[in-house]
Write a structure and sequence with these properties.
The protein is of the alpha/beta class. It contains 25 helices and 18 strands. The strands form 4 sheets. Strands 3-2-1-6-5-4 form a 6-stranded antiparallel sheet, with helices on both faces. Strands 8-10-11-13-12 form a 5-stranded mixed sheet. The protein has a 5-stranded parallel sheet with strand order 15-14-16-17-18, with helices on both faces. Helix 24 links the parallel strand 17 and strand 18. Helix 7 crosses helix 9, helix 15 packs antiparallel against helix 16 and helix 16 packs across helix 20. The relative contact order is 0.05.
């Protein structure tokens, strides 16, 4: 059995033993009277009915059990068990068989009444249950309560009857002494039971407990006392009348007790619920590192909880005046917090604000406050309650984030400037390398010389591709990449892309195939340039890593998604290196980079572009057998149903630029030679060179020109400022084409914003140059 230490009884164990000793003493005195034939001892008081010897024996055994019950050891439990068995045996034998088990040779020993024997049996069962677990002990309380109710009506009737009737052998079912001892025993057993059970209503300091402690005893005693005074002074009262009246009062008392009992239980339930919610709220406030406050708007006093006081460094007083708190508020925030509070109260709104306080140690803290005002019946504000948070750590984090953001933006600007400078400085000499190699290839060369010239041109283009990859990757990383959505011929785009890569494949004697599914539409809407870039990256990889066999480009349509497959018969990819393929500056392994070259940016850029198009990309490969790089993008149908076929651009030989007078603004001698030579190859002979923007303006004063090719970066006056001067000064529109090594996103827009008509990036492509001259000639 569990120890009583967990639940203290309503009365101490010493009191329990005292009452048990009292019951034993009364019964020993009565028993002495039976042995000595002194009637005043076994009746205790003159004219009272004597207590029967067998009843005395039962009370002594039960009291012994009650005395030993708090000990709860093995020996005491055995004794209690034997005592209760003895009580049960005596009660049954005396009631049913009228057997006097302990005292013989005595006269006038009556049979034990039904109520007395029954109550002994009930109490015996309860005592046995008291030695069980908590659940059984709780049941024992209900049984003790029943044993308390049985003798109460007759006990009350004895109080209301005259003394002469108390001595009558025919009075009621129990003697007055038996009634009294039953009441004392049952009440002591109830109060000494440590298990909460039904007696839990008397434990604790909740409102329901206090209500039960004070009102239930009053509900029991007041009817008894009032009834007693009602009968006081009556010379003779029939016992039956007294019993009936006692039963009525007992019923009323019981009804009052039950009403108070259930009211106390409900009050306790509400109180406990309120306490739980209060504790939950307190835990939430504590967990949120918040302090609670209440503002008496009538007296202008604040009540602060310990967390709130500790937060702002206030003294131990829980209550303080508004002026004391305002003195702690940062001077710059004082008017603001007062105005916001007054506005919230006036407009019946919640008050939310942030302000600074000066801690008692001089530290400036950032605070966040939330409050709600309450109003009286007339609508006047009475008080305000709320929470206070110390948000200084958050403010520090925000400041760090702001600082980090500024640093990141600064670093990003520095990166952009570096990329722009790098692109310009590399493209400028690269324009000379590729341009001169192209021009050299057009001259009369020996096979060996032509091979050297082509190698120079190929190397220059390779370097240009690397620069373009780095710039594209930078655009994607910074989120500045924008897609173009126009209708284009998908079949023609695929064919042209494969044709561009075919010469490289043919050099290795590789077969290039195209497979287009029948359900693939000819015209779609999207960014043809970026699609071309992805395919070129995949085809370039396929050609690079394939020595023999063929490369197939297949396009299919499924579930409104276009799927592109580039399949090769190359070296394949090991499973453990597939994950690295689409990472920046990464290839299968170092040996691959050494053998085949490349930056490892192509696939990373392709992956970002596909994802930007809301698609997916992947690879299937078997080492030494080949690979299939695939990607899918959503199908965007063409926006227009009628698509005019573009006319073929005129070839250089079909154009006549003899009457074209071109002004070239370029400060680099090599680039001057390249552009002049290219223009002459196209048949332009009337060419003027200007070394800077001021030179351009001076030459415009003397001559008129068909078009100006304007470099953007020049000494003394750059191309942007020069263009603006020309647009402001000359009413006649002179075509100006930007010719610059700036190739980042936004550079073309910057040129057009300055007033230029078109844009050509260095290194200059002869076909692009032809296109621009053709457009100008048409105008």
């Amino acid at each position: 059995m569990k120890s009583f230490a967990h639940d203290a009884p309503l009365i101490p164990h010493s009191s329990t033993r005292l009452f048990a000793s009292f019951i034993v003493t009364i019964n020993v005195i009565a028993l002495t009277g039976w042995f000595t034939h002194l009637s005043y001892l076994n009746t205790l008081f003159p004219e009272w009915t004597a207590i029967q010897p067998n009843t005395i024996a039962c009370f002594i055994l039960l009291s012994l059990g009650l005395f030993l019950l708090p000990l709860q050891n093995k020996r005491s439990r055995i004794i209690i068990l034997l005592c209760t068995i003895g009580v049960i045996a005596i009660s049954l034998c005396t009631f049913y068989f009228n057997v006097n088990m302990f005292i013989t040779g005595l006269n006038n020993i009556g049979q034990m009444s039904f109520l007395t024997a029954g109550n002994f049996l009930i109490i015996s069962v309860a005592v046995l249950l008291m030695m069980g677990n908590r659940r059984l002990q709780s049941i024992a309380q209900y049984i003790f309560l029943l044993s308390l109710c049985i003798p109460t009506p007759t006990f009350m009737s004895y109080l209301y009857s005259t003394p002469s009737y108390l001595a009558s052998p025919n009075l009621g079912a129990m003697s007055f002494i038996t009634d009294t001892l039953f009441l004392v025993f049952s009440l002591t057993a109830l109060l000494s039971n440590p298990t909460p059970g039904i007696m839990a209503i008397f434990r604790g300091s909740n409102p329901g407990n206090l209500l039960a402690k004070y009102l239930i005893p009053a509900a029991v005693l007041l009817p008894i006392i009032f009834g007693y005074f009602h009968f006081l002074g009556a010379p003779t009262i029939p016992y039956q009348n007294a019993l009936n009246f006692a039963q009525l009062l007992f019923s009323l008392a019981l009804a009052f007790v039950l009403i108070i009992w259930f009211a106390a239980l409900e009050l306790n339930r509400v109180s406990e619920k309120f306490q739980r919610e209060k504790e939950s709220l307190s835990l939430a406030v504590t967990s949120a590192n918040a302090g609670a406050w209440q503002w008496d708007l009538i007296n202008n006093t604040f009540t602060l909880d310990p967390q709130c006081r500790n937060m702002i460094g206030f003294d131990e007083k829980s209550q303080t005046h508004l002026d004391d708190l305002l003195r702690m508020t940062h001077p710059a925030d004082k008017e603001k917090i007062i105005a916001e509070t007054q506005y919230a109260i006036k407009n019946h709104q919640d008050h939310n604000s942030e302000f600074r306080v000066i801690h008692t140690d001089g530290t400036i803290l950032f605070m966040s406050i939330h409050g709600k005002a309450y109003y009286d019946e007339q609508g006047h504000p009475s008080h305000m309650v709320g929470l206070l948070w110390d948000i200084s750590p958050q403010k520090k984090i925000e400041e760090m984030l702001r600082s980090s953001k500024v640093s990141a933006e600064k670093a990003n600007r520095a990166k952009s400037v570096f990329l722009a400078t790098m692109s310009h400085e590399i493209r400028t000499p690269l324009n000379g390398v590729i341009g001169m190699a192209t021009l050299l290839s057009d001259t009369q060369l020996t096979p060996e010389q032509r091979k050297y010239a082509q190698t120079i041109e190929l190397s220059g283009n390779t370097l240009l591709n690397i620069i373009n990859d780095v710039l594209d990757f930078s655009k994607i990383e910074s989120g500045r990449l924008e897609l173009e959505f126009i209708d284009f011929d998908l079949r023609e785009t695929i064919t042209e892309t494969v044709n561009i890569m075919s010469p490289h494949a043919h050099q290795k004697k590789l077969v290039m195939d195209i497979t287009l599914a029948p359900n693939v539409p000819q015209w779609i809407n999207g960014d043809a340039t970026r699609l071309n870039q992805i395919l070129i990256n995949l085809l370039s990889n396929a050609i690079k890593f394939t020595q023999t066999g063929k490369i197939t480009t297949a396009v299919s349509l499924d579930n409104n998604k276009l799927r592109f497959d580039v399949t090769d018969t190359g070296i394949g990819i090991a499973p453990d290196v597939k994950e690295k393929l689409f990472k920046s500056f990464s290839q299968g392994d170092i040996s691959t980079t050494r053998k085949y070259g490349g930056t490892g940016l192509g696939l990373a850029i392709s992956k970002r572009l596909v994802e930007f198009m809301k698609g997916e990309i992947g690879v299937d490969s078997i080492p030494e057998q080949g690979s299939t790089f695939w990607f899918t993008i959503p199908l965007n149908p063409a926006q227009s149903e009628n698509h005019d076929v573009e006319e073929t651009a005129p070839s250089p030989t079909s154009l006549n630029f003899k009457n074209t007078h071109i002004l070239i603004a370029e400060d680099n001698d090599v680039n001057q030679q390249v552009i002049v030579s290219m223009l002459k190859k196209l048949g332009v002979n009337n060419i003027t060179i200007a070394n800077n923007g001021l030179d351009v303006l001076n030459k415009l004063e003397k001559n008129s020109y068909s078009v100006i090719f304007m470099d953007c970066e020049m000494p003394e006056m750059d191309g942007y400022e020069t263009t603006r001067h020309i647009r402001q000064k000359y009413k006649k529109h002179i075509p100006i084409v930007a010719m610059t090594a700036h190739a980042l996103q936004g550079d073309k827009e910057k040129c057009l914003e300055a007033g230029m008509d078109d844009y050509i990036a260095k290194p200059i492509d002869r076909n692009e140059l032809t296109r621009i001259l053709s457009l100008i000639q048409e105008k």
